[in-house]
Amino acid sequence: MLLAELREQVCAANKELVTHGLVTFTWGNVSGFDEASGLIAIKPSGVEYDQLTPEKMVIVDLEGNVVEGDLRPSSDTPTHAVLYKRYPQIKGIVHTHSSFATAWAQAGRGIPALGTTHADYFYGEIPCARALTDEEINGAYELETGHVIIETIADGDPMEVPGILVREHAPFAWGKDPHNAVHNAVVVEEVAKMALHTMMLNPQVSSVNQTLLDKHYLRKHGKNAYYGQK
Amino acid sequence: MLLAELREQVCAANKELVTHGLVTFTWGNVSGFDEASGLIAIKPSGVEYDQLTPEKMVIVDLEGNVVEGDLRPSSDTPTHAVLYKRYPQIKGIVHTHSSFATAWAQAGRGIPALGTTHADYFYGEIPCARALTDEEINGAYELETGHVIIETIADGDPMEVPGILVREHAPFAWGKDPHNAVHNAVVVEEVAKMALHTMMLNPQVSSVNQTLLDKHYLRKHGKNAYYGQK
Amino acid sequence: MLLAELREQVCAANKELVTHGLVTFTWGNVSGFDEASGLIAIKPSGVEYDQLTPEKMVIVDLEGNVVEGDLRPSSDTPTHAVLYKRYPQIKGIVHTHSSFATAWAQAGRGIPALGTTHADYFYGEIPCARALTDEEINGAYELETGHVIIETIADGDPMEVPGILVREHAPFAWGKDPHNAVHNAVVVEEVAKMALHTMMLNPQVSSVNQTLLDKHYLRKHGKNAYYGQK
Amino acid sequence: MLLAELREQVCAANKELVTHGLVTFTWGNVSGFDEASGLIAIKPSGVEYDQLTPEKMVIVDLEGNVVEGDLRPSSDTPTHAVLYKRYPQIKGIVHTHSSFATAWAQAGRGIPALGTTHADYFYGEIPCARALTDEEINGAYELETGHVIIETIADGDPMEVPGILVREHAPFAWGKDPHNAVHNAVVVEEVAKMALHTMMLNPQVSSVNQTLLDKHYLRKHGKNAYYGQK
């Protein structure tokens, strides 16, 4: 993939955040990763979505150093970079403060898999990472945010549960490309809303069992997937 | 009815899901049944609503076998087919993951008839079907989903309560044609939202009595109906 | 006022229901009263709002008899007519199934005056009428609905609290003309939403005191009102 | 700054209330302060937003006396004026009845800092002022509203927590100019919504600690701020 193509994908994916109602002001950013060059394209910090053009995307390396671009990259760049570095499967990352998912993050609770809407995309609970320590907050904060995400995923496959809640903060989601990452961020918000209302109707509700989780997740994502066109 | 006309109705009804805000991405599908030919037209799987044309609708028989069309039909086709087969009154079926109705399905609760909005369309509670067994999930899952819906309706008239919640999944609704089925799916979502908020204001609330249920349902649907124009 | 003018006002006010998001499908109607002729113009039953024209408004008398028009009037016509007959101050009436107000009606609870938003328009609680008896439901149902509204207002001034919840049903609102009635119906819905959320944050919350109620209501409606332009 | 410029800014900021969905009817107003002349431009009372032009903005002095303009200024003018007089840092003020923030005001609860969305803008809880006494309500009500706001902020820096809830009433927000004040009013509403849902998921949730509050607030607002472009 040429960087020009990655810039276009990342720019378009950032604008999709607005289309899907995931962002207020500039409270969200999308990046994409190009495996060939080992470089990341990411939204510039604090720039409004309707002002974004492919040229304004900032190119950084896996350490978060700016390689191309006159604008500052998103302040969350170190979080994105460390995730790409640790999990080569991830090719697009989204961070938003979408309303219902942020409420779960603020409540310090993971979103349990309460139905097939969730199971179609997330192979189990969308976890809530632990709170950062004071040392981590006062240190390389955005990098440490990436570290607690990695600590939570650990050696799991990040593509099986392509999203997480950062405690007292907000969600991150990822995917096989920037567009797919936004898609997953939309699903995080939708299931967050449904799960809140489910809890209100039935506070003792439990997660779907493994059989239903397997059925729905694998119907869409397994090697015998039969959802969609061939 | 010509199949061409059915294709048009089904295509239009699928697009109505977007107009009424019932779907995120491709999380919903509408089908229609033509009595003369015994054939069903249904949305192709995973295709975006704005890409749909009458020609893309897939024609299947009552066993769910594709009769016409190059695209795969909705993965939920066996659920639709078995309902048409069992209940000849049904001429249109809708499945969505609309947010509030899905919350009730996830909570495992039927939506009680708490007021006249509900009683105008549903002659009693919108039931929540039992959970599928592991065997059913691992077997012909979508067909078994149809079977638990039928088990719930049993020998009742499906037109008196034209919708149901599939537990841990989401709502289905139906009607005398595809457009009417979508109409009923909208009502399921609206009453699901109202009923949640009603429960929050009065957790001990009980359903309306039979007299009010009769009055409103029959005002719109009985042989002496007097709502609307003649 | 000429009836032609009333027809236009009532037609426009019905369309405002859509603009303000108060209605799904045809779940609402507006009427207006012309004092000179003693006649009412009201929405035809079951006709979609974008199909309405002034000519389609149905003219009825205070007994609800059709005087002019080819279409059937709203099935709620007897409720409107009896309110105009009893309270000559009322010149416009609205009935909707707006979502949050309907939740309060279904819960059987009046909406308490919890803040100045409420007090700016309603001089006290928006009451919830008693349930109709089986006899009333099986009798002249829509007329009896009007009677329980009148029983609730009694000899009070309906313009001081220009709205009510009909139990297990939905809200009615009214005003000095059809447009004003819709305005009040919007406020009923807004304060219903705010009050639900207030209750969730503070279940023991009590109504504002008489001093604040007086201040806000009279600031807008008293003889020394100083809100708006002269 | 010329008054002509201030008029334009204030007019535009009032229209932003509509864009951001903060207002129903005319339930909100924005003003701006010009330090050089010591004058305030404010929305005329009860005029619809789409009717506003820069020329219609009313110019008042710090005592709230009209200096220029044919229209009555907002009835809340004395509240705005006394805040500008007491806190020269404030250059724009907004009052709305935005739905979720008003629910917190009606519940008599300040909005705690439950996450980074809040901490990015508000350096601690958004407080809820005490209720006005009967004497204050019956006296110079709008001026006394300003006084209880000032009593709550006291000698704090109003720019560190640029918003407040007036009990049983609704929010006020402010900023370094009218546009920035509207921006902060949007944030008050967003965090009010998130915080309500957080409370529902975790009623015992506590505020973020000082370290995280410092990190996020100062990342955007401190002298070493690194969010956005230079």
Structure description:
The structure is a homotetramer. The first copy, chain A, is of the alpha+beta class and about 230 residues long. Chain A has a single domain, classed as 3-Layer(aba) Sandwich (L-fuculose-1-phosphate Aldolase), CATH 3.40.225.10. In chain A, about 40% of the residues lie in helices and about 15% in strands. Chain A has 8 helices and 7 strands; from the N terminus they run αββββαβααααββαα. Chain A has helices spanning about 5-20, 75-85, 100-105, 115-120, 135-140, 140-155, 180-200, 210-220; strands spanning about 30-35, 40, 60, 65-70, 90-95, 165, 170-175. A 7-stranded antiparallel beta sheet of chain A has the order 4-3-2-1-5-7-6, sandwiched between helices. The longest helix of chain A is centred in the C-terminal third of the chain and has 24 residues, at about 180-200. The first copy, chain A, is globular. The mean pLDDT of chain A is about 95. Chains in contact: A-B, A-D, B-C, C-D.
